[in-house]
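User: What would this chain look like folded?
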Amino acid sequence: MGDKGGMDKMKGKAKQKAGKAMGDERMKSEGRTDETKGKAKGAMGNAKENIQGMKDSLKGKSHS
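Assistant: Here's the prediction, encoded as structure tokens.
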């Protein structure tokens, strides 16, 4: 997972599996939180890249 937040998503999934295996509801909940945080970071990273791409496109246009 090369996207921003990928580590949080992986960590969250691992915590959820471990929590399920041990019957630990708190760990499962923490895992869901970490996974959601990772998804949000990924979305923010993608949005920033899209904005930068639009800025770069606008710079390349001539004002005739």
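The helical segments are 6-22, 25-60. If you want, I can go into more detail on any region.
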